[in-house]
Amino acid sequence: MAEWLSERWLAYVEEERLLLPMTPGQRKSAGRGDARLTFARGEIAAEVSVGSSGAIAVATLRFQPFGARDWRRVESAIAGDAEAARRLLSGTVGPELEQVCNQAGLSLFPSGRGRMPRCTCGQPITCRHVRVLVVRAAAAFGANPFLWLQVLGREREELLAGVRAQLANRAEPGGGGPARRSGAGAGAAPVGPMLDPRRFLATDTDPAGIPVRPEEAAVPDALLRVLGPLPLAPELNRTRRYAIAEVTRWGRTFRVHQPVEETAEQVLTRFYQTVSAGAARLARGERSPAYRDEPLPGTRVPPRSRVAGEIAALVDERGTCVSMDELTRACPTAAALPPEAAVQAVRGAAERLPAGYVVLADRYVGRRDQIVAGAAFRHVVTWPEWQAGRLSTEGEWFLALTLLGAWPPVTAEMNGRAVALQQWVRENPSDPDPFVAWLKPEVGDELTFAVVEPEPLRLRVTLRRRAERDLLEPLPIDQAAARLLAMWIAGNPYEGIAEPTAVQLLLAEGFYRPGRVPDPVWLLPMPAVGEPVRWGWDRRLVSSYWGRSSLIPGGQVPGWREGHRITAGLGDYLAGLPLPERRAASVFAEAWAERWPGNPLDPDRPPPYGAFLHFLLNRAPVIARQLNLAAEEALRALQLGFRYLVRAEPAMAGAYEPFIRACEAAEPFRHRLATLPALRTPEFQAWEMEGFRWLGPALSLE
């Protein structure tokens, strides 16, 4: 084996810029490419299969071969080097041949002589087909180094004959070669033999590595015909298998399993022809071993281990996540199995994948570094996060990164500085949140978490203020994500999918990339795409009659229904205030009573904080616009109602204290009031969804 020639060829291709440098994954994937190579004078061509459609792309590399005079110089130089001549005549090519060519004034790997790669796919030289040609040619040169000399213009037999002729000329008297006569007399024997007889038959070539070029037989089952029929009774010479067939019914095409009757001879013939054709393709170099680079004779490899290697190779080749259904068709071992066994083999192999490969949503397989690299996540700071001064772990940026195994230590770039994080969540609640400490976001501000480097993890966190955000910007991406999830939920509507599974599905389908960053799953506009998706138990998205409706723009969340009015004692409490303030406080109090149906003075069943924040962010600005109130005036009027309730029932002080403090946040409320569009418009629906976004999932769904 001339492994030195393989490595030298790859280095030559990169040095001459015939191909851009390849990553280890690209090189490994190209080595498994399905291609048929041909070597001719001045040209290497490869017919490369494109995908599973059976199409062929032809990649070529052309070189300027040596002329006849150049080859005579090379042959003379080889004959003058004992080691080079010995290796060449023993059937191999050693690294000293390159030095011999240099001594002859030539280069074994010429530069600047009309080389140019081409491919019928029309892509530049970085296309996959040229990479397959280069890597497969390297393997071929390692097995048969004379192929490269053939490209340079000399067939093996022609070269060996030329070298032997040069050796014969040097051995003749007066031939000018190293065989000289001694000065003792004309009959003296020559000294200093060109070749050592003891080493003439020695070779560094492994006989098992000598390439075999078998051809397919004209009659594929000739051997079975010679052996004759199997000695089986008629009742035993029958078997049944199931084949997939396409059946058209009701205007739709279905793939069903249909029984096929076969004799034992037909089964044996089918297997024999398939194995023989595959072995011939492997021997001709048209296909590389699918399971390992160097098969070990006599060692049985379990099917799941073989399929795991095929899955890893296919994922490396595609560079994206690949679905389980596609893997059962694309992996050679799985494709040769019955459908049920193929599915089991692929799923079993998914549990034995090499390190660095992940299974997403139990439906896709991908490489962790490829999925994480370039990912981006949008996170809007919620009201609870703003009040607590730290980000919640319910954000999808945190959920996605932890699902992919991206754990600290991590470096985060914020405001032009790199901050090292040893943990996502501070164990001590009193420790400041690094993202909040460095960026100082407020409620409604948007943080973008972009992955700069997957290993080690490096994030770039940028801040966009709420006044700079366009509420309609993510809507097309949100609708596309909602349609995708609705399609998957339809397969099992009652069980649905969990929120982490939904995030993994979106990751596998190419979301969370620049230009395709959706809103959180709990905010996706499911009703807008015509799907009755609800939130079931344990934060699962389901499509059934049970469960709570997902957020509907313009609608009311179940539980906030028409209720009792606050007692008339409020009028006495407000009696000392000017008429506009009394009127505003009464309107807000009545509106809140409609939203909260329970007894506002019952300490055993206090109103939830999430219900009040929804009222504050989505309903109160509308009332303030109708009453022509400024933000501070509206908040003061709303605050008066809750202060009255605390005065009427002191036991409610603990329940209403967060409500009263929330009414002191004038700036967020001013922004909501200033951005309020006309009612019953698409802009108003987006504005109302923004109110849910400020609440966060915990207060909106629970």
UniProtKB/TrEMBL annotation:
Residues 283-295 have a biased composition (Basic and acidic residues). Residues 179-191 have a biased composition (Low complexity). Residues 170-191, 283-303 are annotated as: Disordered. It comes from Symbiobacterium thermophilum (strain DSM 24528 / JCM 14929 / IAM 14863 / T). This is SWIM-type domain-containing protein. Signal peptide: none annotated.
